[in-house]
Amino acid sequence: MRVSRQQAAENRKRVIETASRLFRENGFDGIGLKDLMAGAGLTQGGFYKQFASKDELVAVATRRALESVSERWLKAAAARPDDSLQAVSAFYLSLGHSAQRGEGCPIVALGSDAARQGPAVKDVFESGIRGYLDRMTALLGEARDDDAMVMLSTMVGALLLSRIVNDEALARRLLETAAASIAGTAATGGSEGAEDRP
Question: Model's pTM, two decimal places?
Answer without folding.
Answer: 0.86
